[in-house]
Structure formats: C-alpha cells, structure tokens
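Reopening this ticket.

The earlier resolution said the output was attached, but the attachment link was broken on my side. Pasting everything inline this time so it's all in one place.
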Amino acid sequence: MEFFKNQYFSLSNDDGSLLIQVQKPGFDLKEFNSIVLEYPNMQIANFMNLKNALTEAGNEKIGIGLVRDRIEVLVSSSEMEAKIKLNITAKEFADKPIEVSTEIVSSLKAAGVTEGLDNIFSKPITVGKEILIAQGIQPINGEDAILKYYTISEKKPIILDDGKVNLYDLNLIENIKEGEWLGEKIPLTAGVPGRTVTGKILPPKAGRDAHLKYDKRTVRLLEEGGKQVLRAACDGAVMIDAGKIRVDNLLIIPGDVGYETGNIEFDGYVTIEGTIKDGFSVTAKNDISINSPIGIGQVEKVESKEGSIFIKGGIFGRNKSEVIARKNVYLKYTNEANITAGEEINIGFYSLDSVLNARSIIMDPLHGRIMGGKVNAQVQVVAGTIGNKSEKKTIVNVMGFNRADIKKQFETLLLRYKELLQEASKTKRYMEVFEQSLAGAEYSNMEEYNELFRKYEKILEEVQEMESERKKLQKILETKGDGEVGILKAAYPETYLEIKAMSRKIDKMVSGSFYFEDSQLHHK
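Inline output:
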C-alpha cells in the first residue's frame, strides 16, 4: 500500500516492510529525514539500500526498513501488562484527538486487550513513548486452614503471698465441663481467580487443608458459624497427646478423702478440693491435685501411676506418709515423709527430715531449704540452703550420670530430628508440585495428594513427640559435670554431700556448686 509519493520516489507498506521505488535520481539523502519525521511509524533499517536506490533510480521496489502500526500495542509475554506506543506526529494527535482515540480503542480490541484497561484519556499522553494502558489482575491465593486448640497451661508452680499466708500454687489439672470449647478449625479458602489483559483466567492456589485431631469418644465435632468446633462430650480433664486433644476421666472430691469416701482408686485424674485424712490413701492413673492449703498429714499413700502430684499445702507425714509419682511431685513443704518421683520433685519452702528420691530435686531458690533427712537424686539437687545453724545432719546424694551416653542420645535424637525435618520439607515440595499444576478443587480430591498430606502430618506429630525428650536431655546436659548440687545461699556444717560415690562433709558454711567431673569433686 502506497502512502507517500513525490516526483523522485514513492514509499509503500508491504505487510510491515518499508519499500522504496525510485523513478528519478537526484533526491538529497539528507532531506529524507524530514519525511521520516512526518511518518514516525517508519523505521529505516538499511541505509545502504536507501542510498543506492536514490542514486541508481532503478524503478524497483527495494526494502529499506519497517513500517510499524500507527498505534502499536505491546503485550508482555505473561500477558499481565499491555502498553501502547503512538507512532504518529504530535501535531496529528493534537489536531485529531477523537480520531486517534477511536484508533487506539480499535487497536487494543484487535490485539485482544480487553481487561484491566486504564482510562488513558484522563492522563497526559506523549507520542513516541510506551504508555502502560492495561494491567492484569493477579490471582489471590487461598488461606490455609487454621487450627486452634485449648491451651494447656505450663506446669510451673508459683509462690503466692496474700499478706497472711504463703501458698504454693499450680494448675496441674485442666478441668473442663461438657459442652465447653476445646478447639476449632477455620476452613481453607479457595482464593480469587486472576485475569490477564487478554481475558485469560488465572486460577488461584487454594489454601492447604488441615485436620483437627481429637478423641471421638470424648470430644464432639460440630459445625458452627462456618467453622468446625470441638466441644467436650463429657466432664473431665483436658489432655493433649501427640497433637490429639481428649477429655480424660476426672474424679472431683468436693471435700476430704476420709470415712465418707473411703480410699480412692481411680483410672484417670483426681482433684481433691479438701485434704486426705490420716490413714487414707489415693491412687490414680493420672495426675492428682490436692487443693487444700493445709496440705495432708499421716496419709497411707498418694500415688500417680502415670502422671504427677500437686499438693497445694505440704505434708506432715510423721515418718509414715508416702507419695509416689511417675512424673513430678509439687508441694509447699514436706515434714517427715517419703517422696519418690520419676522425674522431678519441686518444693517451694522446705524439706524437713524427709526422704526424697527423684531424677532432679529442685527447691525454690529464695525460700527452699533442706534440713535433715536424705535426698537422693540421679542428676541434680538445687536448694537455697542445706542444713541449718543447729548443724542438723543432712545427707544429699547425687548418683550421677554418664554425660557421654546422654550426649550420644541427644545427638542421635537431633540427627533423627534433622532427618524428619528434611523428610517434611521434601514431602511439602511434592505437595506443592500438585498445588502448582492443579487447581485446589482438583488436588484436594486426589488420593496421591491426600496420602502426601497424611504423611506430612505424621512427620510433624513425631517431631512434636521428640520435643519433650529433647528438653529432658538438654536439661540434663545443662547440669555441671556428671552430677551437681547447687547451693544458692548456704550449706551448714553436718551436711554430707555425695556425688557419684565421692563424698564431702561440710565443716563450715559454704555456698556454690559442687559437681563431679574428670573423676574429681569440684566446687565453684
């Protein structure tokens, strides 16, 4: 198509190729630039052909460059942006704004740009420059499902002082009533699709699903307000084990254990709001909480076969009371009693003429005193004072441990922990392959994807289970040497320390840490 002609030559557009046909020689090459300025959509690409054509005037059509569209539409490879470039003169744009605007609309339509258009006519336009005219809409990915559970409080006793009496308090058992909230799941969202400037739909990535873990016998799953909600199916004690929440059997004694109740033997948790009268016993599978501030006296026995024991007051045992727990024992004081714990004995104020047996025995650093009796620990004993000014004979024995073995266990656990994290990461990547290649509604129904999801959750469960053991081993390794007695204030004469079969009799008041290391007993 011919678009320019003078007495020397004509210019035509042959499907985007700029052709010149010279009929008469003598046109000055320098003056050709004025024609280029008049037609900004021309692009000279071969100056040698142009020069030869003007000189030789062979009357043949010769390619000298390109002819771009007057309204050039540039769409990005992702089709998320479209720009226009006006290859016309500023004068034409100023003289014919309506015609140019109509041409712009037609060019965009011809290029398939239909979405995300800016109102280009509301802002300044410069000819010969690329102008952003349309932007696609990115998809909004869905949100992952959110799980929330009842929070089990940290089992850490505190000393309360109301001005009249000091109490050693701990919320050992988490009581729950039937129908009370235990957890919920906010479902995943599918996300919002996006769209390219040419109208192609961009599917979003759906959020990941997650499943509430609960004991179906003791916890109900309900639909409430678009959420899945867990509620207790019965009264009891809340327990979360390996990420699964349940309500265990809970026996609440509103008063004392005595002639009205008889001895208590229960397959679950026991809360006693009063005390245990002399001569009676309480045995439970799980935790036992005795909430009377007066504590207990000459009881027969208090035993938790798999859990811990909390005595809000203390024990006046008269050398007959026995307290046994698979895990921990927490109490305010002990006087002439025998206490055994599989893990830790934690005492707020004092131990007087008692026998204590545990992996670690921890007294409150400000108030805790050990006076008389015998203390046997596997790893560590910590107290404010040991003995007293009257030089009461007090025996503290730490059997000690093999640090190399504990360290090896710890390193093996960390290695397995690392392997699990790598396996979790690998499984997650496989899941993401499904998520990136398929729409959320599709992969959520695929057995292979669901199998990966179950595997991923199982790995996370094992990681969670290992965390408790990691904390125990780490706590042992934080102990000085292969066994330690920490005395924060003072140990008095007639205190006998024995750590890993090495003995030290205290002859004068001393404080600090005694520990066994390199076949020697050290004091620092």
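Reporter confirms the inline version is readable. Residues 72-135 form one domain. The chain has seven helices and 37 strands.
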